[in-house]
Design brief:
Elements (H helix, E strand, L loop, with lengths): L3 E4 L16 H12 L3 E5 L9 H4 L5 E4 L4 E4 L2 E5 L4 H14 L2 E6 L2 E4 L7 H13 L4 E3 L9 E5 L6 H8 L3 E5 L4 E6 L4 H12 L6 E5 L13 E4 L12 E2 L7 H8 L7
Parallel strand pairs: 1-2, 1-12, 2-3, 7-8, 12-13, 13-14
Antiparallel strand pairs: 3-4, 4-5, 6-7, 6-9, 9-11, 10-11
């Protein structure tokens, strides 16, 4: 039976060093799994525009972008969901009033708000995207502004309780720790993205696997038959069905081997 595996990016496929290294064993394992007839997908919170060539060159069959708000299979977009202009305008106003630092994400780039505070984390991310491609760093005043999902940084000056009340029923609040939160439209997420892919391809959940390294990967677990944590995924390990090795100790390769991805169909 053909299998399918969904991969987180940072800390799973690519290490979190400044060089963003993909271990040679990971490259070899992905190639062997594809040649054996299996399917490999990226499942990420990133929008399409900021999944770079360092990921695409690894050769995936498809992508779940933006926590399930955008899905691509074999180079074809099969699903996309964004927010209405009214919702986007109201959220920009709410974030300003609550004194948070936002980054609004859409499939074609990221948007910043000059009228909102710049906290350290978002400033670093913004600078990184400017280096990657200046077109990816835009502002909320741009004609046609809108977003699919967004993130905020916050501190003791932020009215985080008011913010959470304001997004209730519209966005799920995912606490990423250290004053950072990810906001995903209600009813969406990495797990829902997997379900759409499996439904489209006619693959049973029992043949589906997911692998990640942090708690924001946990929503993938209910959507697959086997949920795998990288050995470097300290907080994720207690929730996993299987724990593979660290990213630099052939973790991805060993997971693919352990679950039969190298066996020709």
């Amino acid at each position: 039976m053909r299998k399918i595996m969904f991969f987180d990016i940072d800390g799973t496929l690519i290490d979190e060093s400044p060089q963003h290294i993909t271990p040679e064993s990971t490259l070899r394992g992905l190639d062997m799994a594809r040649k054996a007839g299996n399917l490999l997908f990226v499942n990420t919170g990133r929008p399409r525009a900021v999944v770079g060539e360092n990921v695409r060159r690894l050769g995936f069959d498809g992508y779940v972008y933006g926590c399930g708000t955008n899905i691509e299979i074999d180079g074809e977009e099969i699903f996309y969901r964004t927010n209405t202009p009214e919702v986007c305008e109201n959220i920009v106003r709410l974030v300003r009033e609550c004194d948070a630092s936002p980054m609004y994400e859409r499939r074609d780039g990221n948007f910043y708000d000059p009228a909102a505070r710049d906290l350290a984390f978002n400033m670093g991310v913004k600078e990184g995207f400017i280096v990657l491609d200046g077109k990816l760093s835009r502002t909320v005043s741009e004609p046609g502004f809108g977003f699919d999902k967004f993130v905020i940084c916050f501190d003791e000056k932020t009215d985080i309780q008011r913010f959470r009340r304001g997004i209730e029923g519209l966005f799920d609040y995912i606490d990423r720790g250290k004053g950072f939160a990810e906001l995903v439209p209600c009813g969406f997420g990495k797990g829902r993205g997997i379900e759409r892919v499996l439904d489209t391809l006619g693959i049973d959940k029992s043949a589906a696997y997911a692998i990640g390294d942090s708690l924001n990967d946990l929503p993938m677990k209910p959507a697959v038959g086997t949920f795998i944590s990288m050995g470097n995924g300290v907080k994720l390990i207690p929730h996993a069905d299987h724990v593979t090795d660290d990213i630099h100790k052939d973790g991805v390769y060993k997971a693919l081997e352990r679950f039969g991805f190298f066996e020709r169909k």
